[in-house]
Amino acid sequence: MKISESNWFEVERYLETDDRCVLPLGSTEQHAYLSLSVDSILSEKVAADAAEPLGVPVFPAVAYGLTPYFMAFPGTVSLKLATYAALLRDILDSLYATGFRRILIVNGHGGNSPVQPVTMEWMEANEGARCRFHDWWRAPQTWACVQEIDPVASHASWMENFPWTRLDGREMPEAQKPFVPFEKLRDRNAAGVRELIGDGNYGGVYQKPEADTDKLWATAVEETRSLLEGDWT
């Protein structure tokens, strides 16, 4: 049940019997040869695929996040931490005001993790509020599946390359890119990060056979769904 494909009457009827919803978080940032919207596309789709058989509403992905380290790549958009924290709190407050109480945040961008305390503050301030913050790609079962398929995997590599994130007519390198030295990424500005990572892939082959990525996607959807179905008491 996508909010973008629903009207308010339908949401009101849903809230008569259930108070769960899903809020995907994404970003707009470089992903090498893939779409700049990878994180938003993936967080919203894994949320929608997980929630669909349950009939739980999925809100549109928040398309901008925290990604200052990629600002040397044109097309990237980054919010300030205070701006993003305020934005997330406003969204959660709106959901609570209209009747939602149990909210699963499906996060598609690691850089967004600093806003997790906002969810704790929101629960503390609102009676009966529950919020789960789920980094879908590094959840235990999903990450184990990545490691099983190919442990050399990272940002903008095969593990983010699906039919819905790749761009038509763009060729990708066939060689496996070695991991970038992650310890050097922490003390560089955006220009230094771009110099270090080159095309934007942090390490790994750029594309895997569909059988591999289908397996990964099925695992991610199932693991995400389990959080919606799980015990909220």
TrEMBL record:
UniProt keyword terms in alphabetical order: Hydrolase, Metal-binding, Zinc
Cofactor(s) in the UniProt record: Zn(2+)
Signal peptide: none
One Pfam family hit: Creatininase
Keyword check for Transit peptide: no
PANTHER family, A to Z: 2-AMINO-5-FORMYLAMINO-6-RIBOSYLAMINOPYRIMIDIN-4(3H)-ONE 5'-MONOPHOSPHATE DEFORMYLASE, 3-DEHYDRO-SCYLLO-INOSOSE HYDROLASE
Entry similarity comment: Belongs to the creatininase superfamily.
Record protein name field: Creatininase family protein
Organism: Lutimaribacter marinistellae
